[in-house]
Amino acid sequence: MRVGETGGYSAAFFTMQAMGLMAAPANASELKLPVGSGKGVRVAILGGGVAGLAAAYEMQKAGFQCTVLEARHRPGGRNWTLRTGSVIEFDDGTKQTAAWQPGSYMNAGPARIPSVHKTVLAYCKELGVPMECEINTSRSALLQNDHAFDGKAIEMRQAHNDTRGHVAELLSKCMRQGSLDQEIGKDDRDRMLDFLRIYGDLRADAKGNYVYTGSNRAGVSRMAGAGNQTAELRPPLEMHALLDANFWRGMLFEEDFDYQATMFQPVGGMDRIPYAFAKKLGNLVHYNAPVTEIRKTPNGVRILYKQNGTAKRVEADYCICALPVTMLKTIANDFAPDVKKAIDATTYNDSFKIGWESKRFWETDFNLYGGISWLSTGPISLVWYPSGHLLSETGVVLSGYSGERNSEFGRLPNMQAKLDASRAAVEKLHPGFGEQLQKPMYVPWGKIPYNLGSWANVGGFGGGGGGGRGRGRDGGGRGDAPPQPASGETPYQTFLKPDDRIYFAGDHCSHINAWMEGAVLASHRVVEMISERVKSSAGAKAAAV
Amino acid sequence: MRVGETGGYSAAFFTMQAMGLMAAPANASELKLPVGSGKGVRVAILGGGVAGLAAAYEMQKAGFQCTVLEARHRPGGRNWTLRTGSVIEFDDGTKQTAAWQPGSYMNAGPARIPSVHKTVLAYCKELGVPMECEINTSRSALLQNDHAFDGKAIEMRQAHNDTRGHVAELLSKCMRQGSLDQEIGKDDRDRMLDFLRIYGDLRADAKGNYVYTGSNRAGVSRMAGAGNQTAELRPPLEMHALLDANFWRGMLFEEDFDYQATMFQPVGGMDRIPYAFAKKLGNLVHYNAPVTEIRKTPNGVRILYKQNGTAKRVEADYCICALPVTMLKTIANDFAPDVKKAIDATTYNDSFKIGWESKRFWETDFNLYGGISWLSTGPISLVWYPSGHLLSETGVVLSGYSGERNSEFGRLPNMQAKLDASRAAVEKLHPGFGEQLQKPMYVPWGKIPYNLGSWANVGGFGGGGGGGRGRGRDGGGRGDAPPQPASGETPYQTFLKPDDRIYFAGDHCSHINAWMEGAVLASHRVVEMISERVKSSAGAKAAAV
Fold it and tell me: Which of B217, B515, B530 is the best substitution to test chain A (most A C-beta atoms within 10 A)?
């Protein structure tokens, strides 16, 4: 407190931060380019996803002359919200059109924002995007394994609290036996036992041992009510059975730093963010304009693209390439050999999502408002309930979200088999309700033109990416710095450097891979690099004159 | 699954429910009184809180002739939302008037609804009250103890995940030593170790022991970013220090069945619920009408009240008394001796809340969106951040919510000292920001006329109440049936029976004490009892004719 009192807010803040006792701010500095500093400088921005849009938004504020080329008729890239009328077309021509109720929607790409992703949240505030809570985990959500509990789903609150109860009981047993007298000093022994009693909601048995015999934390088999209606506890699930079930991934997921119980979403769909950017940018964004060639010129770049069947071009002083690496593999270019090598070496994950419109039986019959249920066996690993329009009649529930390659789901023979598996997963969790699912929309990112993948594989980046997404998928894991390769440059390191006047951006150029925050921070980084370069070359010119 | 396949939804549902594997529905039956069944029957309903309003709403739908007498100028009772212009007047005349920004509000009474409180949520839906998520816990919330960590606040995510890490490490040590070979079979030993590794986010050290050396779950001292900015882990807090801090109450609170991470609130304030009831009831509700006498007549009741200084009366066939028991102590009445005894024996808790308007520094500087921070020492035990209007400029933060009687807070000499303590608690959690708090509003329910207390003390009910509120306050605890007294009737049991034609309602007549759900279920119960009585007396009359 002394520092706070004498040094004011800043001193206290940074001291505490240095001690690791407070949330660090999301980033060292907020991006602020000098107004007018980009005057007369032309920038071609490839890709109207969140990275490209954020770059254009910041640069045009500073006076740069920006052109954004977007292959699709809409902004956002992977930030794509499906509503009635939305069309999914695979690269093989397969087509689906959503025909849902007004208000029903599905975020095919990003669908939640952690509160620690301050840059994206700051944009939402600045652009006036109304936000609401995204409920990422719920104790009413379910965990299911074909080989445990006769295949019946367990409530998250049972798994969590019965597990903790057993762990606390076992540890208290060890402590009473003296097994940990070396590790836990005598002074702490009793305090530790007191703690374990609260931690696990244990009771003392006749011999004074702390035992776990169930807890209201694990839910009740009968609710309390008026008059004589008292609550009834559930008998605890046995540790042996919980070990069989292996629910840990779904349970611990909520503790991962970037997947918390409550997150954010824009009201009405995640694409409210790119549309808000696009509105600010107006006709700087050229739609239906897929890039066909990326060329270097003596003092800049020349980008060739097609628009409505016509070949067009844009000349610029700098280029920010915010296209997926998968696309760079298909576009003629003048990239340096190390960049070509990095592009070749990069592979993408091929995650899919399947959404269904349905009556909200998960709310009415399961007290489930948002959150994610997990299945340990079978081709579908999760069912994700909507956080928008809670308590309304219908909504879009997701059944299935994972990678297809080398997976049980990916090996299913066709789309109908995949949809059947998706419905069956809901039926396993919510027996009798699977048939309520209607009008599925299947988004296999590996087959979506202009993406052909969901996000860069961290592996492909030789330790570069190390982003949140890989960790989130398999639960647990670590957020510390990835190991450096023994020798040579990783693809990730290559994409961090400009190739002449071409700069690479996108979440794959950040350590927050597969998140919008990574995309905008990567854009901020290259925008600053270009701004510095313009400033020093202007300085050089002035000196020469 | 067999049952589900052969018996359809219902069979599967009820079988699973019987096995305790699924959420039980909130209540056995939804209230449905036969339309017109109350025709010609007059009911006086005392108290326009949620219990009285719900009773009147249901009875008028069935044709009963209802009169609701409410002492205040507004409906809702303890369900009271303060906004600019709201006046708090103590029983000693002390007066405060809120002068806040539009949109700023504070729920002085109930402030969150669990998803398992289906009856209240069903009313919100039926009455068209727009709902949103109430964020009840956040991993970014803080825990503070003057005597631990030099008084510095710790993030909830550190306390939770460092504690689990240490517990998992200690237990894995015991298991490797063979201390639990009797409890955990050999088959389970390795699976248990695998589980503990994931559970605690442990690493294997050089000797193959699983150790806890920190986890990204506990947060980072540096966020990951673009380019070369990798995340940095925090060093773990030591178990010894965590035991010193004794944070368990604040940490485990979120696991209590009725206090989950995400709950519900009406958009704009909890009083949207009573106002929605009141709108439906129109002039059935008489405001500024405090009851002065409750009398029995040969075939009904006579209620005397005052309105604008004039003595008035209402005669009715039945009475639902939904006043706080504290008020019954002050009203002349014809109650039976056992009821008078029950009233005498009942005491109320005197919880208070203090709210302050402030810039949302907890959001901008601490990534804290909703949730509750806890202080283990000092007169203020918690700071509760608003879930409404997230990401806006200002909001009302609560600093202080607990009982006053026999407490450190209650012993503070005057209101200024209490407000100073409230501000100091925020300063402890958020050094340098205490001064941002403005325009406090202090609601001591023990001093609020027409309540003189926050909720019935469960103790005073001799084991009857057993409601959620007592448990929630002290963390942990059990939801099973309270023990019955050795002999005689508890006050709770007395209030469950009608006194002639007078029926008692309110949350204190339920096992969901201090919650709106208890209030409406208690009303449903007596409304059904009256409906049955009317039906059988009509039958008797018809038989007599």
Answer: B217
